[in-house]
Amino acid sequence: MSSNLNPYAYLQNEIIPLKSAYLHVSDLAIQRGYGVFDFFKIQNSTPLFLQDYLTRFYSSALMMGLEVPLSEREITEVILELIQRNEMPESGMKMILTGGYSANGYDPAEPNLIITQHSLPMPTEQQVNNGIKIITAEYIRELARAKTINYSMGIRLIQQVKSKGADDVLYHQNGVVTEFPRSNFFIVKQDNTVATPAQEVLMGITRKNVLELAAKRYNVEEAEVTLQDIANAKEAFMTSTTKRVLSIVEIDGRPIGNGKVGEVSKTLLQDLIEFEERQIEE
Ligand SMILES: Cc1ncc(COP(=O)(O)O)c(C=O)c1O
Q1: I need a labelling partner for 7 at 20 to 30 A (CA). Which of 53, 187, 224, 252 fits?
Q2: 202 lines ligand 1 (CB under 6 A)
Q3: Which domains does the chain have, with CATH numbers?
């Protein structure tokens, strides 16, 4: 993982040192938590699957009635310049679009676009090798298809997750599972069918890649997944940009399958790592 103590960031048409990148308190992100963002990985100084992340970012902005002030070509130029200047070949990049400096603290104004580069928080070796434990909570994300900056529920639940000795919390409504605060969810059924919820979830870029890779080896289903399906499952895992494919071995104190990291999860993690490497070579 690379780090740079004095990285550059993009804010309001300028590339400036991150330490002087400030927004005014009148911004709707501060006043009302209004904005969208996206986050992608940089490996070997290459932004991975950038087009997919840009498409989702512009689509989230549209859903929230916010206009991105740069075209996709212009934003790509800024991203490439930051990568070159910051010299963080293994890192993450965040694009944030806020509601802008609102005159009355409520009406949207001209959106502010911020792009920052960070070191990448990857799962620990222990989490990858032994899998993680999760709890569940009743909740459904508002406007689930958009990647908004509202993570209030996930952040409120951090204490509960920790107090139960777990690593994350899976959202469901009346037993129908959706996603984690920051990841998508998959199960592997007894016949090796790989299934993931289709409704009320963010269309994760890793979810899309894993579905494509899984379809080459197994049956795949984008369908309703219930808590009962998890109880009957052979394996379960989460996917996200930073976590890739991370196995889940326990839910609400009960083991999933045999309580160990499963073969399908391991295979798909390896497939994804190789897929990322092929992207870099291209
Ligand atoms: C709500 C939600 N679901 C799923 C994901 C995973 O998406 P991706 O694979 O594009 O990182 C994220 C990522 O942050 C998220 O915020």
Answers
A1: 53
A2: yes
A3: 8-118 (3.30.470.10), 125-281 (3.20.10.10)
